[in-house]
Design brief:
This protein is of the alpha+beta class. α1 packs antiparallel against α2 and α3 packs antiparallel against α4. The protein is elongated and about 130 Å long. It has a 5-stranded mixed sheet, with helices on one face. The chain has 9 helices and 5 strands. It is about 70% helix and about 10% strand. The two termini are about 60 Å apart.
């Protein structure tokens, strides 16, 4: 409790010092601004040749109201009224109000100071609120990125456990079986070794795909087509799917667009493996005059695209990625008729 009140007292003390410092600076600006205008008018003998002299003081009041605040503007108004009557209006160096209109000038100064100060204060509060909201949005965006990275690591951990770990276990089991049977049943031993070899190839393809996911920047060096070929190899070796691939030459796209297309194809294939119960996949990457086309189709059980699937964010993720790449995506499917995903992105060449 003692520390709480100590910190509170320290905070109040710092606030008081800051407030006092602001008052001192506001007073100095008000005095300096009015003194500068009065000196220029007196030195150049502008009064009474120019009947609009009060507007010079009004500019000082407006400037202080918009930059320093209400106190500085009101103080400048009072000082300007005093300086105008004392130094400029005859008889000089006497504070006499010869006309009622001069009081009206003071009222105009004060009203202008109050209105401008309130408007400037409201604008500053809105600017501070906007900055606060921007900081909150940045924090939320950072938290969302951290959550996405955590989810991606968890997914990769599951993939390693479900694929590579099981493949290594199968390889070990196949080799042990072959060693036990190499004398009694050489033919069966050969079969076990072939089984272990198939598992090793599948595990190698899966590991290459996972490494590629961990290092997506390799898209820049290896390209989108190479990434799709690696993913197709995983589909063929691990999931025993028939994959028909029609891939054009490496498209001239920005790295962000290549990454978006790769992730869309990856998510589409993941949905096929997990939900579609398909035996065949068609992946097509084609180049048109003004666009690049990506198609992923399967002969699975299909679904109704109009329905919502709570907890499944794959379709929404694909749509968001394509939208960021300034492209369009269409999903055609029906129960029992497979699914076809068609993506079209413009050819925006990456600047070097």
């Amino acid at each position: 409790m003692y520390h709480y009140y100590k910190e509170r007292f320290r905070s109040q003390k710092l606030t008081s010092k800051t407030h006092l410092r602001n008052i001192i600076w506001d007073s100095l600006f008000a005095i300096g601004g009015v003194a500068l205008v009065t000196g220029i008018i007196s030195t150049a003998h502008l009064y009474p040749r120019l009947p609009t002299i009060p507007f010079a003081y009004l500019l000082v009041v407006l400037a202080l109201a918009s930059t320093r605040g209400l106190y500085a503007a009101i103080l400048a108004s009072m000082l300007a009224f005093f300086a105008y009557l004392y130094f400029l209006v005859p008889p000089l160096y006497t504070f006499i109000i010869p006309r009622v209109e001069d009081l009206f000038t003071l009222v105009i100064f004060l009203i202008t100071a109050i209105i401008t100060g309130q408007l400037a204060s409201a604008l500053r509060r809105r600017a501070e609120q906007a900055q606060s909201r921007e900081r909150e949005l940045r924090l939320l965006y950072s938290q969302a990125q951290e959550l996405a990275a955590l989810q991606e690591r968890q997914r990769l951990a599951r993939e390693l456990h479900d694929s590579v770990s099981q493949a290594l276990y199968g390889i070990s089991l196949g080799i042990h079986t072959a060693l036990e049977l190499q004398e009694r049943d050489p033919e069966q031993a050969t079969t076990s070794l072939e089984y272990a070899l198939d598992l090793a190839e599948a595990g190698l393809a899966e590991m290459r795909a996972l490494i590629f996911e961990l290092r997506p920047e390799s898209l820049e060096s290896e390209g989108l087509v190479a990434a799709l070929i690696k993913h197709i190899a995983v589909l063929r070796t691990r999931y025993k799917l028939s994959v028909e691939a029609e891939l054009c030459e490496e498209p001239n796209l920005s790295l962000e667009t290549k990454h978006a297309l790769y992730r869309v194809a990856q998510e589409a294939c993941h949905n096929i493996v997990k939900h579609a119960r398909a035996s065949k996949i068609i992946i097509r990457l084609a180049e048109e005059k003004q666009a690049i086309l990506l198609e992923v189709a399967d002969n699975g059980r299909g679904f109704d695209p109009a329905k919502t699937f709570p907890g499944h964010l794959g379709l929404r993720s694909m749509q968001e990625r394509v939208s960021k790449a300034a492209g369009t995506i269409s999903i055609k499917s029906a129960p029992g008729q497979g699914t076809r995903i068609h993506v079209r992105v413009p050819r925006i060449i990456e600047s070097k």
